[in-house]
Amino acid sequence: MSKRISATNAIGPKRSHLIIHLVLIVGSMLMVFPFFWEVSTSLKTYAESISVPPAIFPSSPVWKNYADVFLTLPFGAQFLNTVIMTVARTVGQVFFCSAAGYAFARLEFPGRNVIFIAFLSVLMVPSQLFLLSQFQLMQRFDLLNTVTALALPGIFSAFGTFLLRQFFMQLPADLDAAARLDGCNPFQVWWKVMLPLAKNGMLALGILTAIWSWNDLLWPLVVNNDPEKMTLSAGLSTLQGQFLTNFPVLMAGSFLASIPMIILFVVFQKNMLEGIASSGIKG
Amino acid sequence: MTSQLVPPVEQGQRRSMPLPRPGTKRRSLRHGDRYWAYLLIVPTAIGLTVFSIWPALQTFYFSFTKWGTFGGHEWTGFDNYTQVVHDPELLRSLWNTVIFSVMTLLGIPLSIGLAALLNTKGLRWVSVYRAVYFLPVVTMPAAIALVWKLIYNGDTGILNQFLAVFGIDGPHWLSDPATAIYAVGIVSIWSSLGYNMVLFIAGMQSIPGEFYEAASIDGAGTWRQFFGITMPLLTPTTFFVTVITVINALQAFDLVYLMVGKASPAIEESQTVVYLFYAKGILQGDGGYAAAIAFALLALILLITALQFRAQKRWVHYE
Amino acid sequence: MTRTHSKTKRTAFIVAAGLAAVTTLAACSSSSDGGGGGGDGGSGPVTISYGVWDDTQGKVMQQIADKFHEAHPDITVKVQITPWDQYWTKLQTAATGGAAPDVFWMNESNFATYASGGVLANLSDKLDGSEIDMSNYIDIQTEAYTFDGSVYGIPKDIDSIGLWYNKALFAAAGIAEPTGDWTWDDMVAAAQKLTDPSKGQYGIVAQSAPQQSYYSTIPQTGGQVISDDKKSSGYDTPEAIKGVQVWVDLVNKYNVSPTLQQMTDTDADTWFTSGKAAMIFEGSWAAAEFKEIPYAAENANVAPMPKLDQPGGVSNGLGNVMSAKSEQPEAAWEFLQYLGSKEAETAQADAGIVMPAYKGTTDSWVKAFPEFNLQVFVDALENSTQYPSSMNSAAWQDPIELEFNKAWGGELTAEQAAANAAKIMNDALAAEK
């Protein structure tokens, strides 16, 4: 049951709700305004986008700007790269981390503490510490400017392991025991019994990883210089700083790049928010 | 992923295996467990070793070298670290990063306030508001930066034109050294508000309702209840959010890179430590120095996180 | 039963470990294969890569490459366009890994670094008996691409700077358009008449990009950016300081130009092409860009740079170079020779994109856009000096630009900025071996 602060006071519930709505609506407008501006500008002509006083709405929508996006950037290729990278990382992390998380949570084996501490140390360190070396690794394996290089380092996660370890630890131990008595080996226990139960945790991790992946900038920027092999983030970032910046096309491109995640969010809103909330709750 | 979130550190709880029952079967099953455990761990362990642990060690080595333009490196001892301590550019970037972090921390009270509002009993359209406030979180930083650049444009941007209505002559937000880092900071608050809000809502909802009922009976009003019950019991969540926010803010790169850029007159007063790392390590090919910068950053993060953990005893109430 | 169980487990574990080991070994061994580009040395069809950074020019380059393919059906050239911002980082990384494109664009700022670093193939030995005659190219460009007595690049193009102006704005203000007789003071006077803060209009957009500003004026005030022997900086002389001062005055004394911050928020070319600034110092390469923007195509024209103390100017030019580690050196050299041929160089002029470095081919370029008075740029070549560069230009270029930006912003005087710049350059030059 959700517990909420009571908002009743002497004046009456509705009145205070009104004020709250007012505040929230003003805030919402501030949140939404940049999106509105993005879409509106994407449909303006170049002159309208830099006009003083500003044109709030385009006089007549220039849909061509959206087509022009594909002329300025290899948008389709970059979109595909971003999707592949995101899916690879998400699927990879969900499976590998749940496997490792389960092992840490439930199994005893020599060296468990040592390995655990090693994972922990990875977590404490900012990712830039790995960057240069990861880059050289990609260079050595001839993977620069490939989609593989985009996804590879992000498939393994110490954070994901911890997150799922938490979830596994909260499941009753008797389930393990019962399954083992039935003759399952630990792998089967994990695969058949634990995974279905840890769905929430896996979903949470999956969502967090997907969002992070889609928006990741530094690594894709460093590892792939070829526009055809870049992700959308990196591709968009190359558009700023050109000599003649075509703002409407830029906005069209930005909007197109953001849509998939927004759609995903709208559809899976409940799951996403629950997943994030559960990642923060401490015992 | 390590750059985004840090999981809550446990307070010394660890489940152990159920006590062994007498019987050979149990014992040998547990003995054999190890192979399965290794199997389950192997992918992540190998991946982390190859892509995290080894790179960290190698970067440590790099920090004592100087890189040649087209490959190769020579040992230079502590030169890089000496340079780190004396480099005005780096020290300035540390300062910029601190300013940026403080700004993002300012977003936390805002998100607590929002969460409290959204948590009001009987409020309608909560899920709509939640979605709206969360939108910036799922949007690509590249897209966010580009649109805010337009909004912030000193001559044609909508912000200054809006201010002009009130007679205020707005500065060139992103090219003026005095305002750039703050302008970027505002965008950072804007884009993370919804995320923190969700965490705080969850935290608030885990507070047992009996506290509020008891307080109401005692005649405590909304504000009293908020400051007397909600805030104190929210401190574990607040602590968690603060730690994460600081760690992420100390590693800020995306927005500065996208919104200010190296040709801007404001760059020295806006570049964060990670931006400098990128500029030195990737753009200028000075990998050794960049490695030293990365370790300096690590030291900073560890220090600040440790301080926060020590301080938590003073203000965080665990049930 | 216990025994069988542990046996299965053990097998599974060993299999997994084995798989992991094999995968790692495979990954490691693939690295020893070296860079891309298969195929043998000369017989059979080969593909070579041509690295460029400009979108507009890239299309013309592809046309040139296709023509080459007709003459050499067994060589296919793949043009790779990398945006300017990424070009040099990518190139440096690729070169470090021995995987630079077979043929690629080089500019004067970076030439010495790459030549001395062993990345570029030495072309001197190949020149004898080839189709290339270095005397065909404009002298300062040939010099620019010679290192340590050997030729490492075939000059591709050359540029110069002119005073672009907005005919409509001049007409509206009733001012006569700039002529070849204009002095700097004439320009300042016109700019003042054309500046109208209430309309957000400026007489000139004084951008701080070096080639379009002090690199162009310092030769005209009798100074030098870098000494002829490339061992010391010329910035700290009164002549050079004057060459910088004239720009700083436009921004901070006469207030006829947008401020540096304004030019950062909105780039210099946009100020001009949107009709908010009446004049701009820009290069010959801008003709193709301006032509693509309707407003600019209609209203822009160009005149010679207004005179200062003596004739002078700066030219930059690209060169086509070949990777020293190319897997297809013969094919690459064939293509390189074609790129340096009169035919290919003229093709660039016909498309109007740049002035070729090949002597005597500028006519078709001038005719490419009759609405612009492009002869101005050809004439300017007579007095052009070489683009300032040294063995490791990267060490001083960006930092010096930042210093002069401070003068633009009014934080430093031109004199102070020049003194700082000289120090930066001298320190960097001293570090070069």
Describe what you observe in this structure.
The complex is a heterotrimer of chains A (283), B (319) and C (433). Chain A folds into two domains: 13-61, no CATH class; 73-239, Orthogonal Bundle (MetI-like fold), CATH 1.10.3720.10. Chain A is 72% helix and 0% strand. Chain A contains 15 helices and no strands. Chain B is mainly alpha-helical and 319 residues long. Chain B folds into two domains: 24-62, no CATH class; 79-315, MetI-like fold (Orthogonal Bundle). Helices cover 69% and strands 2% of the residues of chain B. In chain B, β1 (65-67) and β2 form a beta hairpin. The longest helix of chain B is centred in the first third of the chain and has 39 residues, at 24-62. In chain C, α19 (397-408) packs antiparallel against α20. Chain C is globular. The chains are: A mainly alpha (283), B mainly alpha (319), C alpha/beta (433). The interface between A and B is large, with 125 and 128 residues.
Give the topology.
The complex is a heterotrimer of chains A (283), B (319) and C (433).
Chain A: H1 13-42, H2 46-49, H3 64-72, H4 75-106, H5 112-124, H6 128-140, H7 147-151, H8 158-170, H9 173-181, H10 186-197, H11 199-215, H12 218-223, H13 232-239, H14 247-267, H15 269-280
Helix pairs in contact in A: 1-14, 3-14, 4-8, 4-11, 8-11, 9-10, 11-15, 13-14
Chain B: H1 24-62, E1 65-67, E2 73-75, H2 79-86, H3 88-118, H4 126-138, H5 141-152, H6 158-165, H7 180-205, H8 209-217, H9 222-250, H10 254-259, H11 273-283, H12 287-315
Antiparallel strand pairs in B: 1-2
Helix pairs in contact in B: 1-12, 2-12, 3-7, 3-9, 4-7, 7-9, 9-12, 11-12
Chain C: H1 2-31, E1 46-52, H2 55-71, E2 75-81, H3 84-96, E3 103-106, H4 108-116, H5 124-127, H6 139-144, E4 146-147, E5 150-151, E6 153-155, E7 157-158, E8 161-166, H7 167-173, H8 184-194, E9 202-204, H9 214-217, H10 238-252, H11 260-265, H12 268-273, E10 277-283, H13 286-291, H14 294-299, E11 300-303, E12 313-315, E13 319-322, H15 329-339, H16 342-350, E14 355-356, H17 362-368, H18 375-380, E15 384-386, H19 397-408, H20 414-431
Parallel strand pairs in C: 1-2, 1-3, 9-10, 12-15
Antiparallel strand pairs in C: 3-13, 4-5, 6-13, 7-14, 8-10, 8-11
